[in-house]
Amino acid sequence: MNPLQTDPVQALISDELRQWVQGQHQSGHDAAQLLRAMQDSGWSATQARQVLQHLLPQAGDLPAALAPAATQATAQRGPDIRPAHGQPWVDGGDRRVPVLCQWNTPRIVVLGQVLDAQECDELIAQARSRLRRSQTVQASDGEAQVHDARTSDGMFFQRGETDLCERIEARLARLMDWPVENGEGLQVLRYGVGAEYRPHFDYFDTRQPGAPAVLRRGGQRLATVVIYLNSPPAGGSTVFPDAGVEVMPLQGHAVFFSYPQATPASLSLHAGTPVLAGEKWVATKWVRERRFD
Ligand SMILES: O=C(O)CCC(=O)C(=O)O
Ligand SMILES: [Fe+2]
């Protein structure tokens, strides 16, 4: 055991996870239902039970671990990037893409050279004149709003808007084994010195009044690919606080992560850390459950 972590269970519990468990419990979901939801998100039964027992001591004894067959039967196939037969790369259709690192819970895959330097530079050039201060989706009504948590400039391409977008989208669809039509258009972001994207989830919170409007087009988001279009001299990594993972921004590399269940138990909380020198440019692809029009 790591001598620095005196309570390994507490180390698993972020504020978001705590609030989610307590909120779900208060709104009538019992500990067994929460155990199932956490297992469906990829948690081991042992760790999920430890977390639930810590947060809901009043809930009493939890059921034994769910049989794997029970969770697998409810699990649906979603977008994923998985190298075959222990190979160090995945097939992107028009190129082999190196897999540098991968995690299972949460599912995170770090890829090298998804885009070459020329493609990165071209995408930046196509996006530059269309940048506007980035917005976030307003939870209350589904409208886009400028927000302090997100201090970048950004723009969206339509899906297939340029030959380059089409080529990148076909490559990403092949890598994720998920239809091009289920993807939102590429978003390009530029962060200057000090700009960041504070910890957030990419899925939509279905309890919010604005959710139906957002979900009507293509359903829930299931996964994200963030592609680094340049290499900032310092800062600008992508961090996953619940997974203890930090991905460094290097031109052409990318990080894929998925959240099959749209809850904090997905452990997909992530942030773009402040840029300390120069600029950071990324392209983000979000993919949905169904066709996105
Ligand atoms: O800039 C980053 O590293 C993360 C971007 C991100 O989280 C997003 O676009 O949703
Ligand atoms: Fe994000």
Automatic annotation (TrEMBL):
It comes from the Bacteria. This is 2OG-Fe(II) oxygenase. It comes from Amphibiibacter pelophylacis.
